Amino acid sequence: VSFVITLKMLRAATSSSIRRFSSNARFVLPAFEGEPFRHYAPGTPEAISLKAACEKVRSQVVEIPCVVNGKEIFTGDVAEQVIPSDHGHVIARFHKANSEVIQEAIQVSNSARKEWEDMPFEHRAAIFKKAADLIAGPEASRVMAATMLGTGKTPWQAEIDSRVESVDFLRLNNKFAEDIYTAQPPLNSRNTWNRMRYRGMEGFVLAISPFNFCAIGANLCASPALMGNTVLWKPASTAVLSNYEIFKIYQEAGLPDGVISFLPSAGRVVGEAINHKDFGGLHFTGSTQVFNNLWQQIGSNLGNYKSYPRIVGETGGKNFHLLHKSADVEHAVNNTVRGAFEYQGQKCSACSRMYVPKSLWPEVKQRLQERVAEIKIGQMDDFENFMTAVIDASAFSDHKGFIDRAHASPEADIIAGGTYDDSKGYFVQPTIIVTENPRYETMEEEIFGPVLTVFVYEDSDWDATLKLVDSTSPYALTGSIFARERTAIVEAEAALKFSAGNFYINDKSTGAVVGEQPFGGARASGTNDKAGSHLNLLRWTQAQTIKENMVPLREIGYPHME
Question: Are the beta carbons of 95 and 148 closer than 8 angstroms?
Fold first, then answer.
């Protein structure tokens, strides 16, 4: 006897099994701490493993499909990903999704949503815990090598991003979700029981991730999925390889087909998903202008949607380091060099404007020049290098433009760097500009490259400088104050209350750690929904209040009517 089981029957049976075998026990997540950092010192096992993984990435060209419902789709519309520091070297060819693939992904998301949301939380959490454990251990070198060579990161920058931050996002999201689900109404009137349940969106979520952090891509799709949503994931074209490695780990961890669709594509094509009536939310990291355009597109479609979409975005930054006259100069300079030039200044939190009191400027200037002169630049898999190339030709052209205009401007003096070379890779030297005009273009505009601009202020102008820092830029992502005097710290904290979503005292403007410094900014820097906290996960759930009455009502009158 043969039995033919249709896909519909199989899904129905699976969904029924999920409900039938849900446990009435209250499970507790395993205890954990933040993932420890590895340092890749010469000759250590992790360094040897990472070197070998980099050699493997260099030796092959990976063919990357779209993936919808577990099915690999090779559209034939192919683009290439190259090594930024060796742009003639192709490491991946990826097939771009077209309109038909996007529409198929939407259908699959809608079909998969109920079964996924009905899966008990402990099983959804187990999938992402397993993914975290795989990234932390057996798959670490593979993910890091793809991140290093694909997006131009040194070992340390890849470690803090693609391994540690990805792992911390996935583990801590489980904890944040557990806390959310535990939150219940504190009061119950006599003979009633009040409850809250947390549902996913009544539609799919579109996740659009940037090139500069593999972990952001991992989180943009995983956090809505954890809360019971289905997701269409569009990775940046310059980061497809590392994001594809993360997606495959999700599959290996047991993520059901259809929960996340992997869709490399042009922004214009994937943007068609926003027009669909079942669009439920946007999870975005990228430029402010693109985010504004997407928000306008969403606004123009409000009459078409089943529900108001959730919009969560982290965008640009024009981040500051402000030195008070009491600052520890060596400490401030070292933090500024790291904050401005690590990962070639391509962090949304990178320091790109610096304010220095006149009394400290001679020492600050000398130390800045000395530190920048120490920076080694080259290939990312040469572990001795501090910096490597910027991401692509477009970024190189933008940075070149800022440097060329500074060379030509009477308002700017370049005291370090100021050169570039794209003959082999997209190399831009760490550049420091000094200006007497606090509104000079590199003090106001986001550069997203290794260019730092310094404004020297009179020591007596501290209060005015605080106002200047607050008003110079439309962004409000990160910023730092360096001071020994507590009064100055208190004054800066008050005056710069809305100038940064992440405010640092005697530390650099970069390096937020999941579970320690929830990340996000306001103004033109985004919606400040704090990735790496419960606040972000709350955006991907819809609460339903349930009131149950226990005692039948036998009359309609009230006591005052007697």
Answer: no
Q: Kindly list the distances between the CA atom of residue 472 and the CA atoms of 256, 450, 451, 528, in Å, as whole numbers in the listed order.
A: 48, 20, 17, 20
The pLDDT assigned to 532 comes to: 94
Per residue, what are the HEC states of 470-511?
Answer: HHHCCEECEEEEECCCHHHHHHHHHHCCCCCCEEEECCCCCC
Are residues 229 and 540 in contact, defined by beta-carbon separation less than 8 angstroms? Answer: yes
The question of whether 54 is a catalytic residue gets the answer no
Do residues 306 and 333 make contact, with C-beta atoms less than 8 angstroms apart? no
Note the pLDDT of residue 2.
38
Catalytic residue among 165, 348, 351, 446: 348
Instruction: Count CA atoms closer than 13 A to 263's CA, side-chain side.
Output: 35
pLDDT at 17: 43
Cβ neighbours, 10 Å, residue 259? 27
Write out 177-236 in H/E/C secondary structure: HHHHHHCCCCCCCCCEEEEEEEECCCCEEEEECCCCCHHHHHHHHHHHHHCCCCEEEECC
Asked if 530 and 536 touch (Cβ cutoff 8 Å), the reply is: yes
Verify whether residue 214 is a known catalytic residue: no
Q: Smallest Cα–Cα separation from 174: which of 136, 237, 129?
A: 129
Among the options 314, 342, 441, 446, which is catalytic? 314
User: Of 26-35, 440-449, 503-512, which gets the smallest average pLDDT?
Assistant: 26-35
